[in-house]
Amino acid sequence: MRRGLSNSSIWVTVKASGISLALAAAALLCATAFGQDSIRGANGPGPGDAKVAKLAHPLIVLKDENGQSVLTTGKPISTRQTCGGDCHDYEFITNSFHFQQGKTEMDRALLASHGAPSFNTSPGMFGKFSIIPNRQLTAADIKDPSDADMSQPEWLTKCGGCHTGGGISEYDLRGHRFLTPEAKPNGPLDPSYTIRDRDTGQVISWDWQKSGIAEADCFLCHVPKSSRGERKKEMAAGDFRWANNATLVDTGIVVRQQNGTFTYNRAAFNADGTVKPEALDISDPTLENCAQCHGFTARNTTTIQPIQHADIMRGTEKSGWIYNGAKISDTVSPNIVEKEKMDFPWDAHAAAGLICIDCHFSVNNPGRMIQEDPKKNLRYKPAEEDLAVYLRRPDHNFARGDIPPETVNLAKRDTMRACGDCHEAEKGHSFLPYKSTHLRSVACQTCHIPAVHFWAYRSDDWGFVMDTGGSRITMRGIEGSIVDPESEIRGYLPAYIPTLDKNNIQQIRPTNLITGVYWFDKSKGRPVFTWQVQNAFYAGKAAEGEFPYRPEILKAFADKDGIIDLPQAVYDTPEKIALVKGLLQKYSGVADPELRIEVVPWAMTHGIVGKKQAVRDCAACHAKNSMLARPVDLNSALPTGVPVIYRGKKLNVVNFSTKEPSFDNRVLLNSFYIAGFSRAAWVEWLGWLCVAAAILFSLLHGAIRLLGGHL
Amino acid sequence: MNSQIPLYALHERMWHWLQAAGMICLILTGMAIHYPDRFGIFGSMANAVRWHSWIGFALILNAFLGIFYHMTAEKYHHFLPRMDDFTGAAVRQARFYFYGIFKGEKHPLDIDPRHKLNPLQKITYILLLNILLPFQIVTGVLMWGADRWSGTFARIGGLWVLAPAHTLGSYLFLSFLIGHIYLSTTGPTPLSLLRAMITGYHVEEEKTQ
Considering only CA atoms, which of A389, A424, A361, A397 is closest in space to residue A18? Predict the structure, then answer.
């Protein structure tokens, strides 16, 4: 549909979703702010190209923190001034979990209600302990320097590449905006104003004047050519104020100079100071925008880079999902073993053209929101907010599901468009008896993700630190290195666990299991921090990238050549555990260390296959050797006799009697009776005893009659 | 010379054989459900479930037709044990099965259209038709209706209660079936009782003097 607006021209291809309508209205809204002369939309797609919803966002002026054009001042871009101000409600937008990551949920009662361990300070990554980084944000009220792990500035240098500014990088833990008169440290250990010095190990002050503040990085998601890699460099260097500029390096608007400073490329700007639309191209988040942080995602690519979009592939690393519309059989790289047998897409939804925001939309977007309210028995609830209100205050608490181990912003769980919101499963699945029971008890993904054809994390052990300073990591589904495109990728089969659905009904779903081994400080009631483990293992600082192990460690763990590699870095005897326990007490001041195993299920939600590839064989689940109870290898080197943690509780889900320690989900599946698979042992014994007695009686009785000649 | 005693009417024989066929089919489909990987004769577990349900309902219908026939034809008394059937007669019958039959003794009960069942049969059928069969019907129908009346199904304990109960009942039925088939060979000749249930007549050899 082509629409003319007085002297301006805006090309908008209307998609039924309404997002384009929203964007068109945004143009209208912003026209007021910038004047109609500034409304010169980019050349969008032509009418009839309904697949593309292209936005003609009004032209914008990039402003600095004082609201002046950066082209004039040369200062860093302030999104608060550029995107906020007259157009979008910056405070509202950044007060959402994508920006806060738990900062607004630092409530111990809330955590307790989720069953979260008490040492977590929030349910999001900003405060939650996770076995993979083995790090945690330092609590706000610590008194002892040994309780300091990752301060707020360090968190930003490590995690700020993805976590896009706003709340966590603008406000301290008490809610004061950095660099304002109110923002002052609350003592020498205040984690918002300190960092642990890598060389001395001492907690020292952080210079916020020098680093500046990282405001919300709107560009990372709304500019197709944004660069998370460039952004990450700035965050890692502690140069927060320029991080948003770095994101725009690939657009040609910003130029990184050889000395590391940033300048603006005047050629990317119009004469009136607005940015040329083809340079910025503000739009809905594309698959590639989301992929920068969330994993391998592409509409249709046959080459999957081992390391795509810099260095993190969150969803892919954790459960091996590839959201890609291309057929697996067409994959050119990496090396997928037996790909010729997989003549189907990596993901059926990607092949159908769905993008992330089709399901994970802004929950108050009138064009996308689920307009029903089951609690009020309403199948249709008209949007309460006007489109203009949405454009000013788009809710960035994106619609989400409720899958383990995600716990951030649980108040918004199950807001996303789930399978049943699009598919009428009851009308299909004619082959399936007890349709309602199956659809209620078995997540769609269980049959529609029968296998993962990529690699994923298998284990990450911080109980033993390697000489690189890092953990002992193993992957599943690949033979070789994940960055080598020649490595053979064989994929893996999921583990199945019961989880609660939105109606509080237990449902079986597929997961990848990541097992961690780590030290827990029982005297403090929290995990032992990585720096403490390193103190126990290393005799000094790293030289040429290698840390020197203490003699005690070398004596106990090294092979005859004095080398500790993955095979040696294991706790295979109680004596080795006791040795490291002693070192932690001696060198790290950990009063009561305890080695623990934690098995973390990462739910699979992408990599969906269509009905031809889905599980249809009843015996797959119902037979004695059901896939649901398949022993999934966890880690070839798990210590025995140590507590096993599963979803925050001590629960032994590890079977050590198999060749390699494997996941034993029998105790979890006890809540399900699966016909053909489940057995009541006494019934089987008694039943077969009766049958055997009947047969035996008949045979004996008949034989005696026969022998006596009285048959 | 042989004499033929009319023993089983057509209705009774049809009822019996339909019941027998139904039970065997239910046991086979039940095995396919209970052991889906080892007993795949029905193609898939889903097919076995469907057949099991249909045959189950057919058997229920047959059971009701049987009740109707036995009530209207006033033949229910064959199944009603007298007090003596629990005591002296039962002991005599048991003694025959465990001793007399090996000595070639005469069956304690003469074959008579008015007394078709021996005391142990009466006791067995009382238990089978009044307890085990209804038990299987109730547990089976509740499981069949798991999707239809899920609340009731869950309140009873769901599959955790119903499936093992139904399975145990099935084992008991299978045990009965084995015993029943074997005991059908304990007539004057191994096949005489079976023949009677097919033709309706019991053939008795007349004694020659």
Answer: A361
Please tell me the pTM assigned to this model.
0.86
Nearest of A164, A150, A139 to residue A206 by alpha carbon:
A150
Quick check: bond before A405 cis, omega within 30?
yes
From residue B29, how far is each of A109, A624, A686, B136, B171 by CA, in Å? 53, 17, 20, 14, 13
Give the Cβ contact number of residue A255 at 10 Å: 14
Contact state of B178 with A436 under an 8 Å Cβ cutoff: no
Chain A residues with CB-CB distance to B39 below 8 A:
none
Rounded distance between C-alpha atoms, residue A658 and residue A656, angstroms: 6
pLDDT higher for A325 or B4? Answer: A325
- What are the helix and strand counts (H, E) for chain B? 10, 2
Strands A593-603, A2-5: pairing kind? unpaired
Please say whether the beta carbons of A359 and A417 come within 8 A.
yes
Count other C-beta atoms under 10 Å from residue A553's C-beta: 23
Q: Is B106 at the interface with chain A, CB within 8 A?
A: no
Q: Is residue B43 exposed (0-12), middle (13-18) or buried (19+ Cβ within 10 Å)?
A: exposed
ipTM of the complex: 0.94
Q: Which residues of chain B does A711 touch, with a Cβ-Cβ cutoff of 8 Å?
A: 185, 190
DSSP annotation of A596: E
Q: What is the pLDDT of residue A60?
A: 95
Asked if A698 and B179 come within 8 Å (Cβ–Cβ), the reply is yes
- Burial class of residue A294 (count of CB atoms within 10 Å of its CB; 0-12, 13-18, 19+): buried
CA A102 to chain centre: 14
DSSP one-letter code for A382: -
CA–CA distance, A156 with A168 (Å, rounded to integer):
8
Give DSSP secondary structure letters for A620-664: HHHSTT-GGG--EE--TTPPSSS-EEETTEE---EETTSSS-EE-
For A432, the closest chain B residue by CA position comes to B46
Closest CA relative to residue A212, chosen from A178, A176, A167: A178
Q: Return the biggest CA–CA distance within chain A.
A: 118
CA atoms within 13 A on the CB side of A559: 8
Q: Sort A657 into a burial class: Cβ within 10 Å, 0-12 / 13-18 / 19+.
A: exposed
- Cα A366 from Cα A381, distance rounded (Å): 11
Residue range A365-417, pLDDT digits in tens: 888 877 777 778 887 877 667 788 899 999 999 999 888 888 888 888 888 98
Work out the minimum CA distance from A670 to partner chain B, whole angstroms: 10
Taking CB atoms and an 8 Å limit, are A702 and B182 in contact across chains?
yes
Contact map slice: A 407-466 vs B, CB within 8 A = 431-437
CB contact under 8 A, B167 and A680: yes
Query: Which of A676, A694, A704 lies at the smallest CB-CB distance from B34?
Result: A676
Cβ–Cβ below 8 Å for A676 and B45: yes
CB–CB contact B170 A617 (8 Å) = no
Tell me the chain B residues in contact with residue A693 when contact means C-beta distances shorter than 8 Å. 175
- Band the pLDDT of A243: cuts 50, 70, 90: very high
Q: How far apart are CA A180 and CA A103, in angstroms?
A: 19
Q: CB distance from A700 to chain B under 8 Å?
A: no
* A49-54 average pLDDT score: 48
Nearest CA-CA distance, residue B109 and chain A, Å:
18
**CA distance linking residue A340 with residue A522, whole number of Å:** 52
What tens digit of pLDDT does each residue of B139-155 get? Answer: 999 999 999 998 899 89
Q: State the Cα–Cα distance between residues A40 and A92, nearest whole angstrom.
A: 28
Q: What is the pLDDT of residues A573-629, one digit of tens each?
A: 999 999 999 999 999 999 999 999 999 999 999 999 999 999 999 999 999 999 999
